Amino acid sequence: MSLFAGTAPAVIEAAVTATGNLDWPGYYLIGAGLVGLVSVWFLVEPAGRPLPGAAPLEFAGDVPEAPGGDPDAAGPDATATRASG
Questions:
Q1: Are residues 74 and 64 in contact, defined by beta-carbon separation less than 8 angstroms?
Q2: Which residue of 31, 36, 56, 78 could cross-link 74, Cys pair, CB 3.0 to 4.6 Å?
């Protein structure tokens, strides 16, 4: 998506100058949104599976806490384990 953000002013200015149509910023945003939607559609959800290269956890209590020490942000399994003992 950085391709759209970094080149937006130059591309939109060129399109408006070439066509005289002031709607090009909207068209550009629609195009960027469509690229984002297509990208999200093809993403694979890794929930419930270990990430590539990650060592498996031996105990549910091994789940690290989130930055700031908020136990609820680490996930529901970690919170349940802490509450139960």
A1: yes
A2: 78
pLDDT digits (tens, 9 = 90+) for 39-77: 999 998 877 777 777 777 677 776 777 666 655 555 555
Identify the pLDDT of residue 85.
47
Cα 57 from Cα 78, distance rounded (Å): 12
Give dist(CA 71, CA 36) in Å, integer.
Answer: 32
Q: Do 17 and 24 contact (CB within 8 A), yes or no?
A: no
Between CA 48 and CA 76 the distance in angstroms is: 12
**Chain center to CA of 7:** 21
Specify whether the CB–CB gap between 74 and 63 falls below 8 A: yes
